[in-house]
Description:
Oligomer: single chain
Shape: globular
Number of strands: 2
Largest sheet: 2 strands, antiparallel
Number of helices: 16
Distance between the termini: 65 Å
Radius of gyration: 23 Å
Amino acid sequence: MKALEKLLDSIRPNFEEGGKLSRFWVVYDSLETFAFTPGHTTKNGVHIRDGIDMKRTMFLVIVALIPALLFGTWNQGHQYYTALGETASFMDKVLLGAGKVLPLVIVSYGVGLGIEFLFAGMRKHSINEGYLVSGMLIPLIMPVDVPLWMLAIAVAFAVVIAKEVFGGTGMNILNVALTARAFLFFAYPKQMSGEIWIHNAGKDTFVDGYTGATALGELANTVGKDVASPEVTSIMSQFSAEGVYSFMNSFLGLIPGSVGETSALAILIGAALLLWTGVASWRVMASFLVGGLVMGGLFNLLGLNGFMTIAPWHQVVMGGFMFGMVFMSTDPVTASRTETGKLIYGFFGGFFSIMIRVFNPAYPEGVMMAILFMNVMAPLIDHYVLAANIKRREKRAQLATA
């Protein structure tokens, strides 16, 4: 690290004001502060200098995403060979999956960081750190078959409309990654319809590949149909202990789905790191989970369709619920800030996630809409929490002076 520090110090004059590369100062500054603690401090007022700055916090989140990324890469290859009925080695599955997942990551970072650099240069400020995480979250919540040009458009829309127009990192009211997914969902619904694409990889069995329904896509077909009908019974058999979408398969992630969302186990490993380091709020995660379990339990009591008969603990390990709970709802910028507000925000996020996916089969991935809705409601929740605290204090003050 000393050698890298010396190298950066030696080229610094070229990027400072008056240097021949001064127009690229934001690029140099972003690289230097990513590798080392910034050497500058605030000019006025009291401040605290801490080695765990925003870039390192974002880096911890990326590390927490690695289990989901690695498993999702392997699972894409696993689903392909399973669909063909062929056996393959671990590395064959990983390499096949990497061929589809890595281009998504490259496009996400390439387009997103390119826009970040452009806005930073125009505003003459340092590169914002927030996209370090968003750039990884976006490909992990996408179907692996999404065309790269669509992904590029979605990234550009999310970074500009959901972030930069509000002032950049820390100013946005909507989660950037979920905004990208919502854009694709409404602009190109066919690519986000609850089906998953199985890559052909040069085989002769299929022309380009084929699509198969995800667990939520299958369950959406039971809405509005008699629970006892043969069609619903056939679908529900896939969710039994021996079925393709059993609780254990869903928990481990051995089912089709978006890149990083299938394995609840891999996601929980990341959650443990975020909670241990204090990066994410346990209040949001815990209340989000409770909200989903409560809504699933209420649906069990009603039992009006096959979807409602799924056990609550099974509901929360399917689709993007766990991923949204750990990595989306805990976004400190778009979530509630007050301690009580976090509990309210998380509970209704989980509650609405299950409600939307069951009530409206057009939105099989209800967690996306639920979290975006709660992003909008977060300031209002905090407002009423603070107002209630002020009223309680006023009453205590009145009693003390009486």
